[in-house]
Specification:
It is a single chain. By secondary structure, the protein is of the alpha/beta class. The chain is 39% helix and 21% strand. It has 10 helices and 10 strands. It has helices spanning 3-6, 26-37, 49-63, 74-80, 93-96, 101-104, 133-140, 155-159, 176-188, 203-220; strands spanning 17-21, 41-46, 69-73, 83-86, 108-111, 116-119, 122-125, 145-148, 168-173, 193-198. α9 (176-188) links the parallel β9 (168-173) and β10 (193-198). It binds NADP nicotinamide-adenine-dinucleotide phosphate (NAP). NADP nicotinamide-adenine-dinucleotide phosphate (NAP) binds at residues 22, 24-28, 46-48, 51, 87-90, 92, 95-96, 112-114, 151, 153-155.
Length: 231
């Protein structure tokens, strides 16, 4: 077993079940794997419960040790989880979230979505009427306590569990408890540090920054993250 993974403290925070909407994709899988290794119960969500179960089985295998990961339909995940991450493509938010609004009322929802598109010049931000994907998420889930985080974190880095993810995670929210919950998740991932960036409306530049990072990654053939100096 890898030293870094073995060095984590699975007992802390183990009581918090983290649900992941669209958890079958690379970003949801990566966050689920890392948070499971940090001791959280993980519920991988999908539009298709069988696909979620398959992804959960693959993640348990990838972990290489005993972890608490199960799969379920997105709706069931919202009922069972304490905190819910949104890791669907931006275009999927408007269809995915409204049917889940009742189940998510009062819960912390962490939006990891980037409003981005790719054209002939490469990645570019998509202008969203709400301001950002995260603000749109908050509009679609009026009773939820929404924070945004993890938009700048590469799924490839998350998947390489032998290596710490030495990046900062910018957390935006208008709700201090939601921000604290998102920060606690980030801080439990090996190598990661949370930075409280500001109000939810600052998710727009954070999401835009992902387009810059994708451009850098293409040019330098890497999976770059960000580090904030002086904090
Ligand atoms: N990939 C990265 O490195 C990365 C890094 C930072 C942030 N992000 C953000 O994280 C989010 C997920 O990224 P990803 O690369 O994991 O995305 P993805 O693989 O394209 O999609 C994730 C999951 O969302 C579900 N989904 C796809 N289309 C859907 C639709 N039309 N309606 C409802 N659900 C749909 C699928 O799950 P089911 O089919 O099982 O329902 C899929 O496995 C994105 O918003 C992205 O901007 C990604």
């Amino acid at each position: 077993m890898d030293e870094q993974v073995a060095g984590q403290t699975p007992e802390r925070g183990a009581g918090i079940a983290v649900g992941i909407l669209g958890g079958t994709g690379p970003q949801g899988r990566g966050l689920g794997l890392r948070l499971a290794l940090a001791g959280h119960r993980i519920l991988v969500g999908s539009r298709d419960a069988a696909r979620a179960a398959q992804a959960a089985a693959e993640l348990r295998e990838a972990a290489g040790r005993d972890v608490d990961i199960d799969g379920a339909g997105n709706a069931e995940v919202c009922v069972s989880a304490d905190v819910v991450l949104v890791t669907v493509p931006y275009e999927a938010q408007r269809a995915t979230l409204p049917p889940l609004a009742d189940a998510l009322a009062g819960k912390v929802v962490v939006c990891c979505v980037n409003a981005l598109a790719v054209d002939e010049l490469g990645p570019r931000p998509v202008r969203v009427e709400a301001g950002s994907a995260a603000e749109e998420c908050a509009q679609l889930l009026p009773g939820a306590r929404v924070a945004s985080a993890f938009q700048n974190v590469s799924a490839r880095r998350l998947a390489r569990i032998g290596e710490p993810v030495t990046v900062d995670v910018l957390v935006c929210s208008d709700d201090e408890d939601a921000a604290a919950a998102a920060m606690a998740l980030a801080d439990r991932i090996d190598g990661m540090r949370s930075v409280r960036a500001g109000a939810l409306r600052l998710s727009q530049p954070v999401e835009d920054l992902t387009a810059v990072l994708v451009g850098i990654n293409r040019r330098y053939k890497t999976h770059a993250g960000i580090r904030i100096d002086g904090v």
